[in-house]
Input
Amino acid sequence: MRARVFVTLKPSVFDPQGTIVTDALHTLGYDAVKNVRQGKYFELEIDAGSEEEARRLALEAADKLLANTVIESYRVEVESSTERSVP
Amino acid sequence: MRARVFVTLKPSVFDPQGTIVTDALHTLGYDAVKNVRQGKYFELEIDAGSEEEARRLALEAADKLLANTVIESYRVEVESSTERSVP
Output
């Protein structure tokens, strides 16, 4: 089963990478892009019996290892078999 | 309008960060996590008149700036949860 974990800086935390990317896009002429926030993305292949079990494991992994919960927040999505990310 | 861009290494490209995270999770007792791939995640706030316009801008931004298309692939989702993939 595949779980996706998104880790982003909390809204109150300054995101210098995102600011630089925003500026770079403006330089390229993409002024319609008003703001960019950058984060991390993890695809976890989990050997779990159920979607709930996979979600629990992914949440624990995010909380203990993948995110620094002082400054970052995370979100977990478990993919049902209908969806598959692109190679 | 909000677009989300996911950038991941192509499957044929070795992902040392993902390997380290997998090992760390095993050390923490999460043996059910068989594999981890790490990528980047961008949230773009786009001033666009339509969903299609936002998607087009996000795809261009990903192609020109956010992803190194030699070794990375990307995927774009526009807020309404419709999805479009680019290898």
Remarks:
- Residues 2-79 of chain A form a domain with the Mth169; Chain: A , fold (CATH 3.30.1280.10).
- Confidence is low (pLDDT under 50) at residues 82-87 of chain A.
